[in-house]
Amino acid sequence: MKKPRALVVDDEPDIRELLSITLERMNLDVTAADTIAAATRELRANSFDLCLTDMRLPDGDGLSLVEWIQTHKPQIPVAVITAHGNVETAVRALKLGAFDFISKPVDVAALRKLIVATLKLGESIESTIQLPQVKLLGSSRVMEQLREMIERVARSQAPVHVYGESGTGKELVAHLIHEAGPRREGPFVPVNCGAIPTELMESELFGHRKGSFTGAVADKQGLIQSAEGGTLFLDEIADLPLHMQVKLLRVIQEKTVRPVGESREQPIDVRILSATHKNLAAQVAEGKFREDLFYRVNVIEIRVPPLRERLEDIDELVDSIITRLGRQIGNRSLRITEAASKALREYHFPGNVRELENVLERAATLCVNGVIDAGDLQLRPKVAATEVAIPNSVAPGERLGDALEDIERDAIVRALEQTRYNKTKAAQLLGMTFRSLRYRIKKLGIE
Fold first, then answer.
1. Is the separation of the CB atoms in 318 and 336 below 8 Å?
2. pTM higher than the cut 0.85
3. CA distance linking residue 323 with residue 325, whole number of Å
4. Which domains, from first to last, does the chain contain?
5. Predicted confidence (pLDDT) per residue in 263-292, tens digit
6. Gap between the Cα atoms of 226 and 433, Å rounded
7. pLDDT band at residue 392, thresholds of 50, 70 and 90?
8. Once rounded to an integer, what is the mean pLDDT over residues 22-30?
9. Which residue, among 289, 361, 272, has the nearest Cα to 322 in the 3D structure?
10. For residue 29, what pLDDT is reported?
11. Distance between CA atoms of 39 and 8, rounded to whole angstroms?
């Protein structure tokens, strides 16, 4: 069986030798280069399965080599070696397309993990191209672009932030990134940051040692450690308290975790994905989210479009949901009338795909003879853009804040559409100042 080939680029002979010996012991053929020029010559002349490069080289910056590889040899995963604590350089490398990074002094165990993950990536390139698209329904252009973006980011180890309105399918996107990448055989651990009580958050995320606090009757593994070798998905990351944001930043930068009551940090190997329906940049501006953590989790950003931006996908989504509901309730002949389909195509869907599922599930229960008609849908009426409407009541199970945000978002979107996205005129239509409208647009994540 042919050995994988690695290119090691470093101008320090000792480091070059350490890296070469480590990789050769892992049964790799190693070629070494001490400059960017020498590295590009080797890359032009030979085929490699991975490249490992230092950031400081005699004839330039290692980032330029990362860029060159992305342009001329994009199939070769490249990892970079950075100075200890140089987070900015690592982030820049990841943004340019580097697969991962490792800090000096090089830890051999961490290097081995990185190399194994990189080789898995090379093995999975073919399957990465064939995403399980059946789970991400929709033939609209925005959904095609979303699938293309998932394919690209799945090949990296860079942190990805998924943002979009509530109900758009952010966790599904995160799961697809995990399934399409080299960590697919590892665990996918979703964590809802807004659902964990503040006083329990550190123990839940980092774990604890027996006796570290009252009630700690046994050692407990944290959620971060349970994602070892796989992906940790931090949903609603904007809800993390500031003191936990500091601790999470250290986990991402140092790739270590320290359980409550433990004196030593333990190395971890997880990929961080995050999501929120809030505008993280606005949260940073308001002092509610740390700027340094924002830049670490937001290395790559993916926007999940709201349903109103892809109404041409409604029929495909409805067919899939109706088929699933028919199986669940034992009525495989469940169908929807054209009048009901037309009503759905014209609806504004403030709750997005999740609302569509809930509407159809309720209608399937209420309909007669397995036929869903427009009256069975019980769609919420649109809110006029010229008035501020506050509901007399909130639907059971619906949080007041979410209900008000939906109404406010819908009113602003309608005003923008009526004024052809002239914010000054939209503000006048809504009876607010331009500055207030701009703030609300940022806060509600309206694009």
1. yes
2. no
3. 6
4. 5-123 (3.40.50.2300), 134-303 (3.40.50.300), 307-377 (1.10.8.60), 383-447 (1.10.10.60)
5. 788 888 899 999 999 889 889 999 999 999
6. 49
7. very low
8. 92
9. 361
10. 93
11. 8
